[in-house]
Each structure stands twice: as C-alpha cells, then as structure tokens.
Amino acid sequence: MHETANNRYPVLPFILIGLGVLCLAFGSYFGLFVAPPERYMGEVQRIMYVHVPTAWNALLAITFAFVCAIVFLFNGNFKWDARLEAGIEVGVLLAFLLCVQGAIWAKPTWGVWWDWDPRLTTTAVLLFAFLGILALRKFVEDPVKRGIWSAVATIIAYVDVPIVYFSVRWWNSLHQLQSSPATVSSQFYIPLRVNAFGILFLMTGFIMLRARLASLRHVNEIAPPPMMAEEAGELA
Amino acid sequence: MSGVVQGGMEFVWAAYGITFGALAIYGVTLITRLREQSSRNTSERSGQ
Amino acid sequence: MIAALRKEMLLQWRTRAQFLAVFVFGATSLLLFSFAVGPNAEDLRKFSAGFLWLGLLLSSTLTLSESFHAEMENRALEGLLLLPADPRVLYYGKAIANWLQLTFLGIALVPVMVVLYDAGTTRIPMLILVVALGAAGLSAPGTLYAAMTAQVKSKQTLLPLLLFPLIVPALLASVKSTSLLILGDPMGSLGSWLSLLGAFDAIYWALCGLLYGRVVEE
Asked: Quick one: which of C28, C110, C112 has its CA closest to C62?
C-alpha cells in the first residue's frame, strides 16, 4: 500500500511546495515587519513584495504554457498537453491574484480600484483569454481535438499579450502619464527576491501536481470503460 | 512631503491575506482532486 | 483560392436574408446603446465610435458562428478536406468572405450611427478604410475560432469568450481611429493607430492561416 502511495505522490513537488512556503514565510515576514516603509508610498509599498513576484511568476507560467503548446503541436505527446493545462490553470490563478493585488494597490495610491494601468489591464485581458481556453477544454470531449485546439488558442492568445500591452499603454498615455512606484533600493530587494523564489517554487510544485492530475484524467479517458473491458475478457 | 501615502496597512494585510489564502486553497483542492482521480483510476483498473 | 472564395460568396449570397437580420440586430444594439448614455447629443457623439464598434463586434459573433453552419451540416468540411487543396486556401477563402461581410455590415451601420448620434465625418474613404481594417482584425481570429467552436455544443457561448479578449487591441485601435475621424484629430495620431491596426491584421492573418491546418485536421 505504501509503495503505491509513494508512486502516486511524487516527492519532488511536495519538497518544492514546502520550500516555497518557507521562502514566502521568511520573505513576507521581512517585507511586512523588517523592511522600512517606502519614502512616498509609506506602508502600502509592502504590497509590492508580493505583487511583483506574482507578476513575474504569472508571466512565467503563461510562457511555460506557450512553450508546451508549441512542443505539443510538434510532437503530439499528451504529456505536454497535461503540462499546458497545468500551466494555464496556475497562470490563470496567478493572473487573478495579480488583478486583485493591483486593485488593492491602486485604491490607496490613486483613490480608485481600477486605474487602467497598462500592466493591470493587460493582466485582466490575459486572464479572460486564458479562462476562455480553460472553458474550451471543458467543452471538447475528444482528447486529440482538445489538445490541438487549446495549443493553437494558447499560441494565439500568447502572441496577443504584447500587442495588448502596447495598445493599452498608448491608449492610456493620452489621458494620463503615470509614474511607476519609485525604484526599489537594496533594503527592498531581499523580500522581493525571496518571495519571488517562494512563489516560483510553489508554482512549480503546483504545476507538476496539476500536470499529474491532467495525465491521470487522460489515462482514464483513453482507457476502455470497465464494462467493455469485461466483455472483451469474456469474449477472449 | 505631501505626496506620502499615510497608513494603508489594512490594504497590505488584505493583499497578503487574499494571495496566500487563495494559494493555500488552490493547493488543498489540487491535492484532493489528485487523490480522487488516482483512486478512481486504480478502482477502474482493478474493476477489470 | 478563387474557387474557395467563390464558393463562400455563393453561400453568403444564398443566406443574404441572414445578413439582413444581423444588420437589424446591429442597428438595434446601436439604438439600445444610446439608452445607456441618455439623450445628451454631446455625450452620444463622444461615444459614437465605441458604440459602432461594439455593435459590429456583437453582430460579428452571429455571422462568424454561422459561417461554418453549412460545413457542419452533412459533414461537408471533411469532404472539403479530402479535396486536393491546401486547408490554408479554404481558411483564407472563408476568412476573406467573413471579412467582406463584416466590412459591408460595418459600412451599413455607419449611417445608423450618423443619424442616431449626429456623428458624421467628411473623410468617407478614410472611414471605409478603418472599417475594413477593423473588420479584418475581427475576421482573421474569428474564422479560426469559429472553425473550432462550430464543432462544439455551446458554440454561441464559447466563440465570444475566446474572441473578445483577443481582439482588444484591434477594437481599441478601431474605436480610436473612428473617433479621431468623427471628433477631429488635433494631435495627428490617426496614422499611428491605423498602423497598429494594420500590424494586428498582418500578424493574425499570417498566424491563423498557419495554424488553421492543425485545427481542422482529423
């Protein structure tokens, strides 16, 4: 029993998740209590220590999904389809958190929840684009079609991200020019980097587990249903 | 300085709380889903 | 290529009643948008370009999701794929037909906008160019996604879900160019918006044509 349990639950993702939690605990403690408040932003600056790492990792997860999409289109191996699904789902989660954090950051800073900052708006567009792909995956029953279509949609949506960013920046710059938060000095680097690695480890662990789940589902999908297998056995 | 943002710790707590709360919930659901799926897979295969 | 396009145009000519219905739908939505703002002529004029493009966008989901209707009946798509023709040719035939249809629809909606919102412009050829470029931005990814979602049960939901976030840059550029034409262009930024739109079109017409073969293959 224990052996199969070990087989089913690989150790590496859990080590990564544990490492991520440790990093996040240390980084956030440092960011919340040790690092001094920023000159202009005051205490609100501390949101950056979780916001910026989330942003980097969200982009990384989506990029990972894009790479998986390309590899899957070339070799058709369903391992990559599972990884694509995992990358998109974790990326969507991080993009959602990014939007929430962005709104929480904008409220005390500019007095509104949503300020049409190009990065925030691009994240929202990206979130909806990839939510659409997850929805597409839910509706297509044929695994081959589902894999190819979602890979194609992922490539198309990923190519869109920089175009959205530049168009929104252009569109918004006509209304207001916005300065980004003051550059981060050395005291602020520690929590930022530690948290970035924390979320990176956590995300990698999640993606590995999620890809495993997708693989298991795929195996279940293509396996003949037990009834048919039984009949085949009787016939034999 | 007039431009300094005063206070706002509640926003900071909200941001950290939502982020880590959501990540924790996602992790838990992920493990439950994985456990369910793998038991379903083994039960269906043993059903042969 | 020409044959594929002719087939599409013939199909569209046969379903011209549908085009009329979609036009009425678009005009109705333009009428409804004005209720969201109120009868202030100044405000309506300011938002007219946005309303025109939103109306066209909503209508486009109807025409696009119907554009594979004929192929889905009698499994004609598979028959077409058996022909010794590159699937890309079929894609471009379909996409050009959709593009023409959306362009005509957009041009047909302009007078409605002029009457309802008092938003006219004297630069008619320029406006037609903007409509054509914007419609091209909608139809390239729209045709590809329609090919996918036509084979799925809830296509009416999925197509806008996939398409709307994607065409944000094209929508932004089209709305901006149109409103610059209507409200005047003091900064002379029309050219740069048009080139953004053109770049979007070029990228997606190339990319979607490239990927279409994979979408329809069996």
From this structure: C28
Q: Give the residue on A whose Cα is nearest the Cα of C151.
A: A140
The set of chains that have 3 or more CB pairs under 8 A with A is B, C
Residue A9 within any structural domain of the chain: no
For residues A101 and A120, give the distance between their C-alpha atoms in angstroms, rounded to a whole number.
Answer: 10
pLDDT at C75: 65
Interchain proximity C211–A155, CB inside 8 Å: yes
pLDDT at C68 over 60: yes
Closest-CA residue of chain A to B14: A104
Q: How many CB atoms lie within 10 A of CB B29?
A: 10
CA distance C66 to C163: 15
> Of B11, B19, B41, which is closest to A219 when you measure between CB atoms?
B41
Helix H segments across chain C? 2-14, 16-37, 41-66, 69-72, 76-82, 87-117, 124-149, 155-166, 168-183, 190-216
Per-residue pLDDT reduced to its tens digit, A185-222: 666 788 888 999 999 999 999 999 999 999 988 888 88
Rg over alpha carbons for chain C, rounded to the nearest Å, is 18
Q: Which chains touch B (3 or more CB pairs under 8 A)?
A: A
Q: Is residue A230 part of a domain?
A: no
ipTM rounded to 2 decimals? 0.85
Total number of domains constituting chain A: 1
Sign of CA dihedral C199, C201, C204, C209: negative
Residue A11 lies in a domain: no
